């Protein structure tokens, strides 16, 4: 218990609590395992028959039973102490399951243990004589009840490591032991990668700053926690602007690290690689920081694996300890974390150890990129609660967006006390504080993007064939994987070199294809002339690509603007005179919005891609975009977004009214689902949290998916596709897979391959051997070139 308290003293020091409150929280942390002073726990250790009696539940009961001892030193009201007792007892990732029957718990614990627990409390009080809760308000006690379990969990995971805290062989006074524990804790925290780094005010970038970047370098910062919203067009350097602002916030004491949250695994990997290699992280801090990657596939990133324990060979560069890399939750404790937004949103959902995520993020400036992609009602509601939680703990945040509707911007800014409707764009605004709305609106070197409608897939194939033969680098962004596969087949039949990228590739193949795509169509890509890339929505933001010609299936306005950001993107590398086409044009595959005769208006042209987005939203986008005929960035973006996504959006034609009402109902249901799921901050941790698995409280809603692990059979053995089981995984819609006769998991070869898997993985992942001709089962096949295909 004192080992953990010694670690907590180091971890809590950076949060700026006054000495009385700091020591009170450390004292409570020291008492987190008081419930192990317990007759049943002693019997368990001795191998004797014992009655189940979870020690963390007993901790809460013993603290309440001896509240008179604690009250004599800590002061304050009992209703303010009790939430904190429950908080330290909840250090195993969930509130204790205490039923309120103290007498029964104490009886099972044993009279001797109850007396000894009182003695322990009295002895520990002497170790932190200035500890006091007297100045803590009811609201502060509630807020601390959500934060404190995370501190205790982090300290417990370090302080319970026997390599760093080996058992002492001699008996000594507690004060003497605590002195020794403090010395060990300093070393342990360093080895875990939690020692922390300080901010540095060096110039971050050697180039001349763009207007938004200059605004971030100049805008006045308010006192206390703050929320900034950066709105600018795709490719305007918002990431660099956010880092400039974050550096100033770090130097102002508004955080001691960063967590950069992105919408997808691919965008997280790309950002991680940027921060690792561009040197900006080293210029933010006075010592090399711990840099972590946090998402479900982080262990498969070569870039991240190369960083683990790299300080031994390159102590001047960012690195990551093996302790931090061991799990997504721990990764959030690093000085600088990069990961999916899901890892942050889980802090606001009642999942196991969500308080550890909250504690880890509370010391960070939370940078959320591509916020417009989080506008789906369920995600938006959870994000709002996350920002409330972050501010409650004194955390600050920066939101980055190109196409955020004003209503959602106002809602999110209100979490920090100020939301506005000002339509200026580009804009930099601090909630309840300063704003910059005088930023230049001149269109860049690319100029306006003309918009033209294509009536059917045949017209698209004809256009791309002609332009590719003329040397243009082309892309067709499709809404559905099946449609993307069909498009590639049609283009190849026409003699065009067409590449394919979508989400239904095994991870090993997807990574290979993504790298090849970047090498060909990236900023410095080679061999792009005359080639066509066909991809799905993952092209909207995941990769930094540049095309001469773009075709897109009709999508909501925000998505089309994002997709158009990959058109004539890098004008310094490829100026207009070097392009094989005279001007940037966004060709949109869409039916005529003026000719809506029935509810099948969109389906006749887009096939499966017609079901990806709400049809009413699609129609509003088509009607307005084709009437305007161009995308002018940045000055015209606000008008495009608000006309379609804002409250004054046009009514749909009568044949689409039913689908539009159903979409509105679905959105309200998703919002209601979020309200039910997210944690209740009006209550204490014990009353407002839960003990669910991450899967029980999703960060996003959508059709359920099912994970397959592709395999090959060699000499009667099942081996993973691509060499490892994680790299062999691919997911698809559960409803489609459930209708197929997938391989029997009881087959001896498959069962043998799964025998060492953990139970959750064995139950949730289906091994699917792929025959030499690509067949998996009737109706399903796989190839490295096309991915997973349904008949």
From TrEMBL:
Residues 680-699 are annotated as: Disordered. In the N-terminal section; belongs to the CRISPR-associated nuclease Cas3-HD family. Keywords: Antiviral defense, ATP-binding, Endonuclease, Helicase, Hydrolase, Metal-binding, Nuclease, Nucleotide-binding. One of its GO terms (molecular function) is ATP binding. The keyword Lipid metabolism does not apply. Residues 219-413 form the Helicase ATP-binding domain. Residues 1-158 form the HD Cas3-type domain. Residues 680-697 have a biased composition (Basic and acidic residues). PANTHER family: CRISPR-ASSOCIATED ENDONUCLEASE_HELICASE CAS3, DEAD-BOX ATP-DEPENDENT RNA HELICASE 47, MITOCHONDRIAL. InterPro entries: Cas3-like_dom (IPR054712), CRISPR-assoc_Cas3_HD (IPR006483), CRISPR-assoc_Cas3_HD_sf (IPR038257), DEAD_box_RNA_helicases (IPR050547), Helicase_ATP-bd (IPR014001), Helicase_C-like (IPR001650), Helicase_Cas3_CRISPR-ass_core (IPR006474), P-loop_NTPase (IPR027417). This is CRISPR-associated helicase/endonuclease Cas3. GO terms for biological process: defense response to virus. Pfam families: Cas3-like_C_2, Cas3_HD. The lineage of its organism: Bacteria, Pseudomonadati, Pseudomonadota, Alphaproteobacteria, Rhodobacterales.
């Amino acid at each position: 218990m004192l080992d953990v308290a010694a670690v907590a003293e180091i971890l809590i020091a950076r949060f700026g609590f006054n000495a009385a409150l700091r020591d009170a929280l450390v004292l409570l942390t020291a008492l987190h395992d008081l419930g192990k002073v317990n007759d049943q726990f002693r019997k368990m250790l001795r191998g004797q028959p014992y009655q189940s009696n979870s020690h963390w539940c007993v901790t809460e009961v013993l603290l309440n039973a001896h509240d008179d001892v604690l009250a004599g030193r800590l002061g304050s009201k009992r209703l303010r102490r009790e939430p904190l007792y429950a908080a330290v007892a909840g250090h195993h990732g969930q509130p204790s399951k205490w039923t309120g029957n103290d007498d029964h718990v104490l009886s099972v614990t044993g009279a001797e243990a109850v007396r000894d627990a009182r003695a322990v409390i009295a002895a520990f009080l002497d170790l932190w004589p200035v500890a006091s809760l007297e100045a803590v308000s009811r609201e502060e006690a509630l807020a601390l009840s959500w934060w404190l379990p995370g501190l205790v969990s982090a300290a417990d995971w370090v302080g319970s490591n026997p390599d760093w805290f080996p058992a002492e062989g001699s008996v000594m006074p507690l004060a003497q032991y605590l002195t020794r524990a403090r010395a060990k804790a300093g070393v342990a925290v360093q080895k875990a990668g939690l020692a922390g780094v300080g901010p540095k005010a060096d110039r971050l970038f050697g180039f001349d700053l763009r207007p938004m970047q200059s605004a971030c370098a100049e805008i006045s910062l308010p006192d206390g926690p703050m929320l900034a919203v950066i709105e600018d067009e795709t490719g305007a350097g918002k990431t660099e602007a956010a880092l400039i602002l974050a550096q100033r916030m770090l130097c102002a004491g508004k955080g001691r690290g960063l967590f950069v949250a992105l919408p997808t695994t691919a965008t997280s990997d790309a950002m991680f690689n940027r921060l690792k290699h561009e040197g900006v992280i080293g210029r933010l801090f006075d010592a090399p920081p711990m840099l972590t990657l946090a998402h479900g596939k982080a262990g498969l990133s070569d870039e991240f694996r190369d960083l683990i324990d790299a300080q031994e060979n390159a102590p001047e560069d960012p690195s990551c300890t093996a302790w931090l890399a061991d799990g997504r939750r721990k990764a959030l404790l690093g000085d600088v974390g990069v990961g999916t937004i899901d890892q942050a949103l889980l802090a606001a959902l009642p999942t196991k150890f969500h308080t550890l995520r909250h504690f880890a993020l509370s010391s960070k400036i939370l940078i959320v990129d591509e916020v417009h992609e989080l506008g789906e009602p369920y995600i938006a509601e959870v994000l709002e609660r996350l920002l409330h939680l972050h501010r409650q703990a004194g955390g600050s945040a920066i939101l980055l967006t190109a196409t955020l509707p004003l209503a959602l911007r106002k809602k999110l800014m209100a979490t920090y006390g100020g939301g506005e409707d000002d339509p200026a764009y580009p804009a930099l605004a601090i909630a309840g504080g300063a704003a910059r709305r005088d930023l230049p609106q001149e269109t860049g070197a690319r100029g306006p993007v003309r918009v033209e409608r294509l009536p059917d897939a045949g017209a698209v194939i004809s256009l791309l064939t002609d332009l590719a033969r003329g040397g243009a680098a082309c892309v067709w962004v499709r809404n559905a994987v099946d449609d993307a596969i069909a498009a590639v087949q049609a283009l190849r039949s026409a003699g065009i070199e067409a590449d394919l990228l979508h989400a239904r590739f095994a991870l090993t193949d997807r990574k290979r294809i993504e790298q090849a795509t970047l090498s060909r169509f990236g900023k410095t890509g080679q061999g792009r002339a005359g080639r066509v890339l066909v991809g799905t929505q993952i092209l909207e933001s995941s990769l930094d690509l540049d095309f001469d010609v773009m075709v897109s299936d009709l999508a909501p306005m925000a998505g089309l603007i994002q997709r158009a950001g990959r058109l004539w993107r890098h004008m310094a590398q490829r100026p207009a005179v070097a392009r094989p086409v005279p001007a940037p044009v966004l060709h949109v595959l869409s039916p005529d919005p003026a000719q809506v005769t029935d509810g099948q208006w969109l389906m006749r042209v887009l096939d499966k891609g017609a079901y990806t987005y709400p049809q009413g939203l699609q129609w509003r986008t088509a009607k307005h975009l084709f009437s305007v005929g161009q995308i002018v960035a940045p000055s015209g973006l606000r008008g495009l977004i608000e006309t379609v996504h804002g409250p004054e959006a046009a009514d749909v034609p009568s044949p689409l009214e039913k689908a539009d009402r159903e979409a509105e109902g679905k959105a309200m249901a998703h919002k209601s689902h979020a309200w039910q799921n997210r944690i209740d901050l009006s209550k204490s941790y014990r009353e407002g949290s839960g003990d669910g698995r991450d899967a029980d409280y999703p960060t996003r809603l959508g059709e359920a998916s099912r994970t397959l692990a592709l395999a090959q059979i060699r000499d009667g053995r099942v081996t993973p596709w691509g060499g490892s089981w994680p790299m062999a995984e691919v997911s698809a819609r559960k409803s489609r897979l459930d209708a197929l006769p997938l391989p029997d998991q009881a087959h001896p070869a498959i069962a043998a391959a799964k025998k060492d898997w953990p139970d959750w993985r064995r139950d949730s992942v289906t091994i699917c051997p792929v025959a030499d001709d690509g067949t998996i089962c009737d109706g399903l096949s796989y190839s490295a070139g096309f991915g997973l295909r349904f008949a």
